[in-house]
Amino acid sequence: MKKLILVLSTLAVVLAACSGGESSSSEGDGGGDSTQTLTAWAWNINIPVMEEAAERFAEENPGFELDIREQGTPDVYEQITTGLQAQGDGLPDIMLIEDDRVQGYLNNFSDAFLALDDYGFAEDHSDKFPEFKNELLSLDGSTYGMPFDAGPGGVFYRTDLFEEAGINADEIETWDDFIEAGHVLRDELDVAMTGIDINNDDGVYRMMLNQQETFYFDEEDNINLTSDESIRAMEVVQTLDEEGLNENLVGWDAWLAGLADGEVATAPSGAWLTGSLTEQAPDLEGKWGVFPLPAFEEGGNRAANLGGSNFMINADTENPDLAYEFMEFFSTSEDVQLTAMEGGLFPSLNTIYDEEAFTESVAYFGDQQIWDMFAGMMDEIPPANYTGDYSIARDEAETAQSEVAEGNDVQEALENAEDRLSNRINN
Amino acid sequence: MMKQTKAPYFFIAPAVILFLIFTAYPIIASLYLSFHQKEDGAYTFAGLSNYTRLLNDSIFWTALSNTFIIFILQVPLMLMLAIILASVLNSQLLKLKALFRVSFFLPAVTSLVAYSLLFSIMMQNNGLFNELLGYIGIDGIPWLSDSVWAKFSIVMAMTWRWVGYNMIIFLAGLQNIPEEMYEAAAIDGAGKIRQFFSITVPSLKPIILFAGILSTIGTLQLFDEPFNLTGGGPGNSTMTLGLYIYENGFEYFDFSYGSAVAYVVVVLVAILSYGQFKFTGDKS
To answer: Which candidate, B222, B233, B229, B243, places its Cα nearest to that of B123?
Structure first.
């Protein structure tokens, strides 16, 4: 008995010591004399922009400090999810969250993010951002985040290969034209048109849904995988794959490598691909160009979005006013957003689109004014209804894409995906 | 006297406390979670609903069967390779033993991400593997994009990574087999192969059991290779229980359901380990 008491008391002492240490350190993070310090989690090229913004903000707000923890994107999400699951324990004041994660978090952890309505963000600033971003960041009429970069979509293509094969990019107006050009490219140069990762990435299909003003779900949150638009979009992917125009490059690195070594001639993607291309394939300078996504019929909508990110504020932050003020400054300051642009991000703040940086011709893209082209698309991009079940829907859409590539009927594959999805959501 | 009886508890306290916090607590918490469901941000008791949901979940059954297919292919293949390598490396005739041992063991300590990345690049349709096969006249194999080959690729990658580790365990076991047994066998006219099957394998039985159980547990929790190499695809053909647990928690925010799947893994590990004990263990 004595022994047992001893063990338990030892335990209690050590546990108390542990928890004591924890609480004192968390005070150091948020409270005490550091009322002017905010913490943030972000990744990659976003970090320098945030640092620059913090410096500028500190000029007006002496003593302000931003404590950024840099991590890989998947790590940030794992930790945000863990923190949300633990009722907000350990989360920073400010979180960078990509478009396709926003609604999942909002729907599953509704009280975790600061509603910006009390601060009037929507009234003051919504006209400075594209409609699709404003919708993405709201739930039941409240706004929960501030838009940062966007991914207006286009087709990145190798101008030299197109020329060699005798293809005129200006004449590619529909997806049928695109497929036809793919055949020419295959026949003339034996190069693949696209490098879609059939089993793991439905990004091109998603852009095609978006450009046709639909998505996995319709506006009433009903599953919409078997719509005419969806079937048409999936048929394009099937044709590309079946007719040997697609090189199935598995994973992000293989895809970039394929673009860099000329195995693949085009990449329908978001504007952010610019940064990766210039970084991974610097020797291809002057050999790339961009044209808008093909439409489904001549004169149809050619604007869609893929990717992009946003900032959301922790509802439990000890300093909501400061966090809001800083993020409002970050999101609407033209200087800050121009810095982001220099880093290769495409800002969604539309008040800067008439700046010089947007009309510049870009040497890497053969002096094409690509930013001007992307900026012109922003107002045309239809909103997409992600819902809280986006991840499951994407999983099923990708399964359908695999089946379709193996030769299954498009309609049937999408119907099966719709059934499975509805089963999974209603469970 | 009193002091001496206290001392041991202080010594084991750090280990016990760490165990309680990082092992016992999560085990109990996930058991609790598996009987609950999140509604409007709060967990409510849900009885067995997470477990009954498993019965009708085709992805769960696919993951279960994938896990077993990989388990049945991979564990025997890897253990056999490991024993053979260990015997060869234990041979008196071989030079540069240390070099070989280190080379075979290196994959086990290589950074997981780096190794997955290299494998995925080599396994592309135009990757190194297919290029080499091309030289001997074999057409390209869709390593990662075909549902059957993708499983095989996972098996290959796992085997590459863990053979060396098991080899070291077997090497240690081989040190305990008295040299006289081999001498006696040689005098009786047994060749190397006969010696391997009649002396080495039976003497290593407890070690094989140990390595077998470790590998069984590892395979049932398989996560790294499918996560990094195939993402569970094509379709769900390389979805494993480990990956499904992760996806439920971190992609679909359904930690309760993920916990229920995790408990299925726990039960399976217990059953399989018990079976292996019965099957290969000593009667005593």
So the answer is: B229
Among residues A50, A118, A46, A28, the alpha carbon closest in space to that of A324 is found at A118
Residue B180 has pLDDT above 50, yes or no: yes
Could you tell me the CATH number of the domain that includes residue B113?
A: 1.10.3720.10
Domain holding B188, by residue range, is 56-280
> From CA B203, how far away is CA B207, in angstroms rounded?
9
Whether B9 and A7 have beta carbons less than 8 Å apart is answered as: yes
Chain B residues with CB under 8 Å of A78 CB are 250
- Residues B207-219: what's their mean pLDDT? 89
Q: Residue A81 and residue B41: Cβ atoms within 8 Å?
A: no
Let me know whether A60 and A104 are in one domain. Answer: yes
| CATH code assigned at A169 | 3.40.190.10
SS3 (DSSP) at A145: strand
Number of H helices, E strands in chain B: 15, 2
Domain count, chain B: 1
CA distance A418 to chain B (A): 14
Both A88 and A194 in one domain: the answer is: no
A272 plus A417 within the same structural domain: yes
The residue of chain A nearest to residue B9, with distances taken between CA atoms, is: A7
Q: Using pLDDT thresholds of 50, 70 and 90, give the confidence band for residue B46.
A: confident
CB contact under 8 A, B58 and A420: yes
Residue A25 has pLDDT above 60, yes or no: no
Give the pLDDT mean for A232-249: 95
Lookup: tokens for B160: 């590459």
Q: Which residue of A has its CA nearest to B254?
A: A108
The shortest CB-CB distance from A81 to any of B6, B125, B253 is to B253
- Its ipTM equals 0.78
- Residue-wise pLDDT for B54-63, tens only, equals 998 889 999 9
pLDDT digits (tens, 9 = 90+) for B223-245: 989 998 888 878 889 999 999 99
Query: Could you tell me if A230 and A379 lie in one domain?
Result: yes
Residue A273 covered by a domain: yes
Does the CB of A45 have a partner CB in chain B at under 8 Å?
no
Q: What is the pLDDT of residues B124-139, one digit of tens each?
A: 888 889 989 989 988 8
Partner B contacted by A100 (CB < 8 A)? no
Same domain, A124 and A171: no
The one-letter amino acid code at B269 reads V
Contacts of A392 in chain B (CB under 8 A): 251-252
For residue B201, the surrounding DSSP H or E stretch is helix B201-203
pLDDT digit string, tens, across residues B74-127: 999 999 999 999 998 888 777 888 888 888 898 888 888 888 888 888 888 888
- B17 vs A15: CB contact, 8 Å cut-off? yes
Q: Assess if residue B27 is contained within a domain.
A: no
CA distance A348 to A334: 11
B124, B142, B253 member nearest A249 (Cβ): B124
